[in-house]
Structures are given as C-alpha cells and as structure tokens.
Write a structure and sequence with these properties.
single chain; 5 strands; 25% strand; globular
Amino acid sequence: QIEDVIEIDMDKKYQYVRISLNGAILFDSGKADIKSGAIPILSNVGDILKIYSKYIVKIEGHTDNVPITSGGVYKSNMWLSTARATTVFEYFTEKKGLSPNSLEASGRSEFDPIASNETSEGRAKNRRVEIKIYTGLK
C-alpha cells in the first residue's frame, strides 16, 4: 500500500508541503543506494515535483539514533543521512530532469525525530527522507 511508505502533510505554519518517504523502502540498512523497488515511487514523486519547479524543494535525509558501527562506508548517521538525501537529489536531477537550481539536499541525522527512538517501530519511522515543497516562490 502506498500509504504505508509515503505520507503527505503541511507544516503548522503553512510554509511547506512535506512528502515523507519510509527509509526502509528506499534504502538497505547503512546504505545510500536506492533500492530498485523504490524507483517507481520516487519516479512518481519526481513527476509531482515537476509541477512545482518554481518553488524551493528541500530533500532531507533522517536516521534513527543507533550509532553506525565501525567498518561501514559512513562514519556517522550524519554522513549516511546526507548521502541518502544526495542520492535522491541526484535521482531527481539526473533521471527525472529536475533543475538542481530549485533543489537542496541535506542530512539531519537523528536530530529531528518524529517518533521515539526507544522502540523499533519508532526508530523505523525516524528513518526517512522528507521532501519539502516551500510555498514561497524562489
């Protein structure tokens, strides 16, 4: 079900529309390569973003608070979250033809949780990519 992997809402101050994508659908644990099964979802989101080409779109990578163990490609959750946001940015610009001038990519690591990191369900919710379409024109 699409509603299990994507949420759309607006912030309380009406500054942006947020599209939140479940991290487990997009990426394997500790990786920043987009899973092949996530391509149709990202493609649809990219098509939506084409409509909003006159607006600033921010792509944010988020993780849970579990530290990355040594030996991985990324030395911290900040590096991982930034790599994931950048991978989505590159997909939108290289595969969907979106202008890099209107997109921004950043990592937020575990510093902006939407659920408790005390449970596996909460940690799963915190692992996500958020795409924010700002309501003010560029």
